[in-house]
Amino acid sequence: MDFDLILRNVSKHITLNSRESDYFISLLEPKKAVRNEFLLHEGEVCRHSAFVTHGCLYGYTVDHKGGEHVISFAPADWWIADLYSVISGKPARMNIRAQQDSEVLLLSRTKQEELHIRVPKFERFFRIIIENSLVASQQRIIDNLSLTAEERFRDFCRRYPTLTASVPQKHIASYIGITPEFFSKMRSRMSRKR
User: Fold this and answer.
1) Which candidate, 142, 174, 169, places its Cα nearest to that of 69?
2) How many domains does the chain have?
3) Which of 26, 66, 122, 147 has the fewest beta carbons closer than 10 A?
């Protein structure tokens, strides 16, 4: 397994020496997930954060009618977890599933706590990751309340440029809060404007 991608991700926020890098890598659990495989089911306790090295995962909830609502995507070089469950130890509110064949590195909550003790600078790293996630979630709520569907789709394309061609349209529609039918009509309208 090549750990360069995760080490580059970490180096955006903290600097590690070779001993610290080796220790961090020793705590990671590589996992392959085939398309549509669940890494987490709603109702289970989320015990790992996942870093995507290849492919794409997505997190979603299911409403009482069985409709899926996509909360987040995690392409390569992104982290994903049900933060509510990881932090509280309570059952997860969302499912995490492989959008396509994927490879991830799992870091358990227990090993993350050990990492904070042995290499304290990782507390800063994960604080930044969580703060960025909180900011993105707040911005998404504001965007859903104030932007048009077209504007939300353009933001999606900026945020996830590699996904517009590889993710099913129904998942993109769910993420931006519209029906697949409306999404299809909107894209046709947008392409005619160009």
Assistant:
1) 174
2) 1
3) 66
